[in-house]
């Protein structure tokens, strides 16, 4: 079990105020890491850090960031480095989804496309690059990107064009940086969740009143061998594996946590 310990290490999680990000930050803390919850909602990040600290595993910190802005990401990493002089684990989780799903391809706007790419792909790129610069020459580290199964296979039901394209870009970015950064001792991997019951999906998919949308939901569960949505905490194990020495020979790969979706 010592392979999974993160004692004394510093971990940064973007989108850490809620949902998947909060669960991953909690997992890092429970494994012994000093944790930073970063989020565009600064107050939410602080609140999340307080909740994690209250668990009694160690102090967590909140920090505000807009991952779509390279300067904001650089300032976030600089703040961590100034305080600790190291960054061992960086989880690029922050992301958004298209509102009011499903969307017809004919109704998809350029503005929506640009926003999805700015946050979900460029934001991951900015985060990865800033983390890699911080880790270089300091013994390496682990970068974990949060992709999606719709970045690995098409999903024609919801019309999430920008989201799927961005997440597909994250998969390839992970592969490319994994190869390029390996000589620096920096591992880069991704987790591709299936459909997860988070605040991002509630109201958009899970609680939608439209009968046609409910029909789509039923079809999603039919296509998922486990016949249910994932809970955010079910991604903790994969993240801890990739953050720790348990995955010391793993890089450039995307790990699906999808209830069997891609394998079926």
TrEMBL record:
Keywords recorded for this protein, A-Z: Oxidoreductase
UniProt protein name: Glucose 1-dehydrogenase
Family, per entry: Belongs to the short-chain dehydrogenases/reductases (SDR) family.
InterPro entries according to UniProt: NAD(P)-bd_dom_sf, Sc_DH/Rdtase_CS, SDR_fam
One Pfam family from the record: adh_short_C2
GO molecular function annotation: glucose 1-dehydrogenase [NAD(P)+] activity
Annotated EC: 1.1.1.47
């Amino acid at each position: 079990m010592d392979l999974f310990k993160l004692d004394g290490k510093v971990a940064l999680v973007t989108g850490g105020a809620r949902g998947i990000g909060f669960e991953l930050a909690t997992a890092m803390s429970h494994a012994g890491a000093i944790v930073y919850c970063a989020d565009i909602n600064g107050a939410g990040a602080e609140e999340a850090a307080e909740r994690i600290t209250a668990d009694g595993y160690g102090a967590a910190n909140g920090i505000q960031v807009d991952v779509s802005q390279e300067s904001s990401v650089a300032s976030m990493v600089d703040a961590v480095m100034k305080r600790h002089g190291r960054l061992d684990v960086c989880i690029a989780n922050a992301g958004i989804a298209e509102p009011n799903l499903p969307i017809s391809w004919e109704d998809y706007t350029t503005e929506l496309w640009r926003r999805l790419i700015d946050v979900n792909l460029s934001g991951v790129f900015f985060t990865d690059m800033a983390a890699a610069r911080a880790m270089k020459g300091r013994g390496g580290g682990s970068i974990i990107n949060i992709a999606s199964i719709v970045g690995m296979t098409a999903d024609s039901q919801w019309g999430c064009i920008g989201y799927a394209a961005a997440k597909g870009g994250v998969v390839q970015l992970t592969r490319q940086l994994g190869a390029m950064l390996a000589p620096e001792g920096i591992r880069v991997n991704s987790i591709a969740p299936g459909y997860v019951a988070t605040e991002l999906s509630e109201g958009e998919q899970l609680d939608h009143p439209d009968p046609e949308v409910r029909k789509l939901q039923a079809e999603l569960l039919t296509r998922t061998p486990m016949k249910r949505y994932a809970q955010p905490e079910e991604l903790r194990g994969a993240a801890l594996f990739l953050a720790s020495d348990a995955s010391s020979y793993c890089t450039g790969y995307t790990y699906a946590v999808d209830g069997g979706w891609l394998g079926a």
